[in-house]
Automatic annotation (TrEMBL):
This is Tetratricopeptide repeat protein. SUPFAM superfamilies: TPR-like. It comes from the Bacteria. It comes from Gracilimonas sediminicola. PANTHER family: DOMAIN PROTEIN, PUTATIVE-RELATED, TPR REPEAT-CONTAINING PROTEIN PA4667. TPR repeats lie at residues 68-101, 314-347, 419-452, 522-555. Keywords: Repeat, Signal, TPR repeat.
Length: 563
């Protein structure tokens, strides 16, 4: 006998024996279990434990006789779980049980809307309004739904009904503003914002929105009046200040914008973070208009005021350092970045910028000292380790360079930068004549970034110098000049690979192309002499060797070739 049949039979005998009180107790216990599950489900829902809430609500539904509230809760839970078919199923059951319940229909309309069932959403809201014609929530949701479906006129008609019920309401007026914007009716749109301004004249967010809208519509004078009003209400509001300064900049009133922002940044009552937002705003404008000398000078004034007024605030010096680096003022950049490192030693950006500047100025010994100090404050930074390794390589300390670059390969970094690190490690190992390890590093560089033309060229050149795997060298060298066809070093590499392959005609043509770029090194001139020698043109060969020696007097071995 199965369990259900056993239960039914047992219940039948209990009734025959007159045990109705016992049955009432069973029903009472079942109801209590259902109510407890429902309460626990609500608690789980509030804690956003939706899977648990679903199981508890299902249990409650099994044990309660009139579970319309549970159906509503299940509909909401399945909506949160993004199971829209089941959400709709239970939502409909809740509505069928209590057709006039406002919240049940609103939830079902919300579910239909999430499922993209436009007409079903509108039908539910219309039915709801038949029962509750002046309900704010239903009317507002209907207006919002019309807005969502692009029916902006119907949305505004519905919002007008809401306004008759509530009087002026900011939330409603803002939706009307968005509808008029979508309909491209700027006068009506701005009229809504003006109404909001009348309701809440001290609302700075609203004043800024109104100012921005006037700017978009070319009404700068109106925008300036609104933003000036905002600043009269709060002279330290950064957004109003940025918006007004933006208008001055658009009008090319650089000094007016600069004075406005400098005064703000010099105010000791302003928070450093707000000052930084102003400085970043002006710096971004310089980046967009890098040739504008007046704008650059005003930005310098603002940044200098920022670092003077906030002399203990590290991010201000990092930003100033970045600005001066971008505007080709390396000494001022280094001065600010050094201060940033002192104030905020964990700021990796400031260390990186400072190292990059030192490297660009060929101050390699200083870069090593700064980089080693940076590594103590920001360990395992691939960029910092790369800069130190490169500085060691450029000062012919290849053993130390290899150590730092190997560490850089193990630090987290994006694939293109990993490729650069491995390519440089390949160069260092080539200098140390660790050829197998060098080739391995170059191959890894190309695996991380198959378009790394510098890795292709250097790998190809090292293979050609050794006279090994020349076909691979040719493949790499030719691919490198596809990326950078005017690169003198790359053209020379192709020529030298052909030289090693015994193809002296092609070798001469490519090395000649390298020389014609005007950027050829003494080594390229020497290579041309070597090609002419192989072609039997000894006078031309001596002439090229002589030019190479004059360009680089350290290449003393050329004197033997000339003699």
């Amino acid at each position: 006998m199965n369990a259900m049949k056993f239960f039914q039979t047992t219940l039948f005998f209990l009734l025959l024996l007159g045990c109705a009180p016992a049955l009432a107790q069973i029903q009472s216990d079942t109801q209590l279990t259902g109510k407890a599950a429902y309460i626990q489900g609500m608690e789980a829902f509030e804690n956003e434990e939706f899977e648990t809430a679903r199981e508890l609500f299902l249990e409650a539904r099994r044990n309660l006789e009139a579970p319309s509230g549970v159906n509503y809760a299940l509909a909401d839970t399945y909506l949160q779980l993004d199971d829209l078919p089941k959400a709709a199923l239970y939502g409909k059951q809740a509505v069928e049980t209590e057709p006039e319940n406002k919240w049940y229909r609103l939830k079902l309309a919300q579910i239909y809307r999430a499922a993209g069932r436009n007409q079903a959403t509108l039908d539910e809201l219309t039915t709801l309004l038949d029962f509750h014609p002046d309900d704010f929530d239903a009317l507002y949701m209907l207006a919002d739904t019309y807005n969502d479906y692009g029916e902006f006129l119907k949305s505004n008609e519905t919002l007008d009904q809401v306004l008759k019920l509530t009087g002026p309401d900011i939330q409603v007026l803002l939706m009307k503003f968005r509808n008029f914007e979508a309909l491209a009716v700027p006068d009506s749109a701005v009229a809504q914002l003006e109404k909001v301004r009348d309701i809440d004249p001290d609302n700075l967010e609203m004043l800024n929105m109104l100012g921005e809208y006037y700017v978009r519509n070319g009404e700068r004078d109106s925008a300036k009046k609104v933003l000036s009003d905002a600043l009269n209400r709060n002279a330290r509001d950064p957004q109003s200040l940025i918006n007004l300064a933006g208008i001055y900049l658009d009008e090319q009133r650089w000094d007016s914008a600069g004075t406005l922002l400098t005064d703000f940044i010099g105010d000791p009552l302003i928070e450093p973070v707000d000052k930084m937002n102003i400085a970043r705003f002006l710096y971004s404008r310089v980046q967009q208009d890098s040739q504008n000398i007046q704008l650059r000078i005003e930005t310098e004034r603002v940044l200098d005021t920022l670092t003077e007024s906030e002399s203990g605030y590290g991010p201000a010096f990092t930003l100033a350092g970045e600005f001066y680096a971008q505007t080709a003022q390396p000494e001022k950049a280094l001065e600010n970045l050094e201060r940033a490192n002192e104030l905020l030693p964990e700021d990796d950006i400031a260390w990186r910028q400072r190292l990059q500047l030192l490297m660009s100025q060929e101050r390699y010994e200083e870069a090593i000292k700064v980089g080693e100090k940076a590594d103590e404050s920001v360990p395992d930074d691939a960029f910092i380790q790369f800069f130190v390794g490169s500085a060691y390589m450029l000062t012919d300390q290849n053993q130390k360079a290899e150590e730092w670059l190997e560490n850089a390969t193990r630090a987290p970094a994006r694939r293109p930068f990993k490729s650069i690190v491995y390519s440089t490690l390949g160069d260092v190992r080539a200098n140390l004549e660790h050829h197998e390890a060098s080739d391995e590093a170059y191959e890894l560089a190309l695996r991380y970034d198959p378009e790394n033309d510098n890795a292709m060229n250097n790998y190809a050149y090292n293979l050609s110098v050794r006279g090994e795997n020349l076909e691979r060298a040719k493949e790499l060298a030719l691919k490198a000049i596809e990326v950078a066809p005017e690169n003198a070093a790359y053209l020379d590499t192709v020529g030298w690979v052909y030289f090693k392959l015994g193809d002296y005609d092609r070798a001469k043509r490519f090395i000649d192309a390298s020389i014609k770029t005007g950027a050829a090194s003494a080594e390229v001139l020497e290579h041309m002499g070597d090609v002419e020698e192989q072609l039997g043109n000894m006078d031309e060969a001596r002439d090229w060797w002589q030019q190479a020696l004059e360009k680089d007097s350290t290449r003393t071995h050329l004197q033997d070739k000339i003699n």
